[in-house]
Design the sequence.
């Protein structure tokens, strides 16, 4: 066991942080958040610098690193701005399904444009308020001569109005699960945008599929493999959310530390009050827990031996600690923390959406218990 | 010992709930979205005798007690915390000091129109560099011919851009920390008074919050509260005590709203073919919410009753504020988690309850300050 990052990983982390510090302008972040707009110019720049799809092999436009390195980047980005960082970490959402299960032709067709900052992706699996619920799906892909005809409705799809391609989970006529990649702009696709509390730079929407035609060349892997692929995709989403949570908690902590060291009340800096010192100590512990759970899960994911029970534990623990850290950070800011001028205000809102993306406690406990108890 | 509201109080509760549901509920969504306060409510609530509830009848007020006020505050905050903020400051922090320390003339000039909703009040103590440490304010009121000249900056001021008058704390003698402070009534048209900017916030969107500047703002001596210079922050003791109790009711109100929303959601929702109400985990959460709300409500009413008897200490008020403002966090947070993606949608009031409820831990003494006050009250 080695808990040190390699020099190369440290370089990636540093490069991500320098990019974010140089480019994530707080005024821009404030404006994009309020208006619910995507950070398009930063996405393009990030792609130019090779930050998008860093975990793809070089032949598909990537850098040949693992998902662990992608987690390091997301953490570094969200630390500087939770909204921009999360948005950048979702532009390739679902592409790991293609990377792992797709044909060489599909990887060239879909992954390379993602790394170039030309195309964005997302997943559309769930049909309920629970992003991890794959138990009650009714989207049907009727097999035709040249492909499939899709009918159904997907709920709370990230990047719904933004993604060029959506990876869709559905059943074919023989009740076999398949995943299909569809073009968001194609006929028969109706998107109802949704306005949400946080992560407002990632537009959500409900997607209605009314007789959408999909060619056979857009089916990922084999028939009947869909559920396995989607579960794998959800693990990728869980890891992304955990990395966002880690960076967001760290970013909130950095800001609270800065404020506590500078703000004076009663003739002392806040950082000199025991109650505040203990809060910061607890927050630091919380972040370490988030970090090592996330890093372990990401490492296992790269090694192809992810333990779903451990990943659920990671999601459960990272989610509740994220909310706690950001809440305490806001409290250290006092009245200022409640004002939108401070970044901590959108960190608070973003944290709650990241928390939901991580999965909520009842269902995560169910999953852990299911593994332990059957 | 009686632990139940009496018939008169129950009738009052029913009455105010009906009025708030009729007059306030239809405004919530629009004004939350616009991030402005619906000022038309002032005369409407004035007509219903629902402004400045404890203001005595001789100034046109309803002359109710603190328990009744808490009943009304809970009901209003159950509907909207942001609108509740404006109404609370108007009837509490802005006008309480005038009632306690103002001359007869000031009471006639400000309380009577405030009760009718013809003039809107604000209260300005907090400054950019002095929040928890109220004695650290830097606004000065230096004596001039016939009055005082105010200079300073105030922030997080509820009703700041819509107020007709603002009760301002300033040092008449900056050399006497905490003691050399007096309260002044400044009118919106007074020369030298201005709104620097309106502030955007995490929650309480329908309340109006602003930064205010006093730039050589001349205030005649008759608008100082109290006869003597150096009234000190002690003048605010009763007002702050009352305000902290109000926060108990405010927290209970938003907690109740979140509870009702989630109870109804759980009753009508099926997940994976099963009614959500059959989930043991969900049943436990709702049971705990109900338990917490009862505790919050009894704490608040007990504190208010003590206040009415003249028995409430600052520690009593802080116990109520700390307990209720912390307890409501669990309620609104759990409500969010149960609804998953529905919870974070802007058209769902549950996310508003989270943002609005989060405020409770900050104003009128953060949770940290309440701990200090309680510890001091223990003789530590």
Sequence:
């Amino acid at each position: 066991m080695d808990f040190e990052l390699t020099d190369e990983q440290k370089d990636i982390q540093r490069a991500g942080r320098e990019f974010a510090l140089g480019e994530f302008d707080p005024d821009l972040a404030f404006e994009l958040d309020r208006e619910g707009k995507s950070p398009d110019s930063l996405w393009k720049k990030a792609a130019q610098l090779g930050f998008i799809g860093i975990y793809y092999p070089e032949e598909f436009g990537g850098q040949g690193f693992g998902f662990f390195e992608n987690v390091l980047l997301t953490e570094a980005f969200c630390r500087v701005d939770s909204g921009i960082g999360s948005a950048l970490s979702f532009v390739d959402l679902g592409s790991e399904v293609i990377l792992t299960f797709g044909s060489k032709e599909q990887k060239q067709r879909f992954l390379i444009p993602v790394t170039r900052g030309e195309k964005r992706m997302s997943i559309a699996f769930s049909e309920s308020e629970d992003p991890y619920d794959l138990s009650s799906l009714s989207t049907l892909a009727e097999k035709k001569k040249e492909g499939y005809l899709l009918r159904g409705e997907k709920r709370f799809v990230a990047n719904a109005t933004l993604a060029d391609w959506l990876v869709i989970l559905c059943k074919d006529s023989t009740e076999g699960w398949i995943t299909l990649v569809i073009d968001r702009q194609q006929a028969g696709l109706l998107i109802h945008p949704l306005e949400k509390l946080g992560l407002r730079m990632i537009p959500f929407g409900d997607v209605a599929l009314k007789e959408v035609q999909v060619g056979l060349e857009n089916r990922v892997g084999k028939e009947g493999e869909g559920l396995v692929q989607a579960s794998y995709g959800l693990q990728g989403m869980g890891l992304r959310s955990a990395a966002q949570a880690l960076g967001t908690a760290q970013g909130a902590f950095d800001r609270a530390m800065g404020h506590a060291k500078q703000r004076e009340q009663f003739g002392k800096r806040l950082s000199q009050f025991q109650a505040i010192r203990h809060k910061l100590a607890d927050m630091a512990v919380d972040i370490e827990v988030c970090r090592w759970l996330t890093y372990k899960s990401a490492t296992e994911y790269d090694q192809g031996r992810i333990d779903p029970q451990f990943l659920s534990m990671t999601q459960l623990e990272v989610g509740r600690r994220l909310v706690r850290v950001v809440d305490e950070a806001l409290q250290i800011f006092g009245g200022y923390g409640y004002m939108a001028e401070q970044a901590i205000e959108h960190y608070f809102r973003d944290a709650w959406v990241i928390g939901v993306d991580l999965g909520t406690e009842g269902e995560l406990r169910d999953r852990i218990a299911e593994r332990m108890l059957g | 010992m009686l632990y139940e509201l009496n018939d008169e109080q129950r009738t009052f509760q029913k009455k105010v709930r009906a009025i708030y549901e009729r007059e306030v509920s239809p405004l919530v969504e629009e004004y939350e979205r616009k991030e402005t306060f619906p000022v038309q409510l002032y005369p409407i609530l004035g007509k219903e005798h629902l402004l400045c509830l404890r203001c005595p009848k001789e100034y046109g007020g309803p002359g109710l007690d603190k328990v009744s006020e808490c009943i009304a505050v809970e009901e209003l905050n159950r509907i909207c915390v942001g609108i509740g903020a404006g109404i609370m400051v108007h009837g509490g922090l802005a006008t309480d000091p005038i009632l306690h320390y103002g001359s007869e003339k000031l009471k006639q000039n400000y309380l009577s129109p405030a009760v009718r909703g013809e003039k809107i009040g604000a209260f300005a103590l907090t400054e950019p560099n002095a929040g928890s440490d109220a004695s650290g304010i830097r606004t000065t009121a230096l004596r001039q011919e016939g009055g005082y000249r105010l200079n300073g900056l105030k922030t997080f001021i509820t009703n700041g851009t819509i107020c007709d008058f603002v009760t301002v704390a300033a040092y008449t003698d900056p050399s006497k920390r905490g003691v050399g402070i007096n309260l002044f009534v400044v009118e919106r048209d007074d020369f030298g008074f201005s709104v620097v900017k309106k502030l955007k916030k995490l929650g309480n969107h329908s309340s109006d919050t602003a930064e205010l500047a006093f730039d050589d703002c001349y205030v005649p001596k008759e608008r100082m509260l109290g006869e003597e210079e150096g009234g000190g922050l002690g003048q605010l003791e009763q007002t702050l005590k009352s305000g902290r109790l109000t926060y108990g009711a405010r927290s209970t109100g938003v907690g109740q709203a979140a509870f009702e929303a989630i109870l109804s959601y759980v009753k009508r929702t099926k997940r994976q073919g099963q009614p959500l109400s059959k989930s043991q985990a969900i049943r436990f959460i709702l049971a705990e919410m109900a338990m917490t709300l009862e505790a919050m409500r009894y704490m608040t009413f007990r504190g208010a009753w003590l206040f009415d008897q003249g028995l409430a200490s600052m520690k009593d008020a802080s116990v109520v504020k700390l307990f209720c403002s912390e307890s409501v966090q669990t309620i609104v947070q759990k409500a969010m988690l149960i609804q998953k993606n529905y919870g974070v949608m802007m058209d769902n009031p549950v996310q508003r309850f989270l943002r609005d409820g989060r405020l409770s831990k900050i104003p009128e003494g953060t949770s940290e300050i309440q701990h200090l006050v309680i510890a001091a009250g223990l003789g530590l």
